User: Fold these one by one.
Assistant:
Number 1:
Amino acid sequence: MTPWPAALPAPYQRAGFAPMTAEVLDLVAEVDKTAYAHPWSRRHFADSLESGHAMQMLALTPDPRSDPPSWACAPVLPDGRWLLGYLVAMQGVGEVHLLNLTTVPLHQRQGWARRMLAALGDWARSLGAHAVWLEVRASNQAAQALYASSGFEAVGVRKGYYPDHGARREDAIVMRGHVDALH
């Protein structure tokens, strides 16, 4: 598999990507429960790992001199770094499909999801992919705005794609990003 960037550009130098491993699946599944009303289960993550999907975590080396005290509540990886977020993507023929993109709620709205999307675009480009696809809940306006501002466009709707409360289902907005336009 083509490697992900080990470090990020300024001002993100203390953050970097690392592959998601079986060792952290319990932690990641717990984070997903805090981020979503309908989270992925540990089994979803384990199945993705077993399938060979690209699974990357974004982590930050703590610096008590400059980090807000509230960040000390962040999930901690086995190597002592704070988990900022993660993504799961599936490589296809000439394309990549983003299956899960999550920022730890404590670190949302700080630019980390945008950094993960940019790295995903770089990785997809290195594979020779021409597009990245994703689905997002129709009710998730914040995520749709993030994706649109990162170079994705809405191209369709999947009716009743997501589970909702009870027996109800929620539509998914299908979005496509041309690899050369992602940022």
Number 2:
Amino acid sequence: MTAAQAAAVDRGPGLAFGRTTLGDPALTGEDDRRRVLELILRMDPVVMQVLKTARRLTLPDWRLASGAIYQTVWNALTRRPAGYGIKDLDLIYFDGDTSYEAEDRVITRARPLFAGLPAPLEIRNQARVHLWFREKHGTAYPRLPCTDAALLNYAARTHAVAVRLEADGRLSIAAPFGLADIFAMRLVPNPVLDNAATYMEKAVRMKAAWPEIEIVPWPAAAGDATPWPAAAGDATPGPVAPKVRGSGMATPSGEAAAPHSAASRKRDWMTLSTSPRSELPR
């Protein structure tokens, strides 16, 4: 598999690793998607610079998360320039010292190391998110046991991906909901928290930057049918929000997804978080 194959949009039969095939679990497996993700990330100089610099910080349980990862994939899939549309770079870690002062010391120590990046770097201790989340977003947030558990609470399942460059050069990937939606360029809500407003805000911004993406609406209350707002420049109305059926969220195809119980979320995370890989060049 070449880099061109990994980063190309499907243009017809014969291309084994394009957007359509990688986004369809019936055509490719998660191992294929992880290998292509690693290849795309290793080809991006800014991502690798951030990962190598973050490794020097030796923060506990750290990862580079969310937009810097999945938006880098979207740019590769759509042949946009590296870094296009990436608003910021999220470096997350987990430290039992949940004081504001401890987090601020980490931010101060990191600032000169990341000077000159094309997007601002935001560093946050995931052990203290529950202390400020309600005030900022208006809803409670669970106390987390580790960094990877934070991914289970992101507003979109598509956003829930993070990587770390290990000491021996291997790249470890955490993706509790898998990578298919990222490669399909499909934004899928994660209604574990009352986070619809954040999801909508991010969805509209991303649709404007990447018109190719598909947006799955936030699940509405039973009997409700709230239309999805059209993005700027979109002349057609958005899809109608699906209804909740039974205990699972209704999908666009009408099938009910699995319920988001605490047990199933833990099982997904333990099953789908990857171990470090060494197949690709360091």
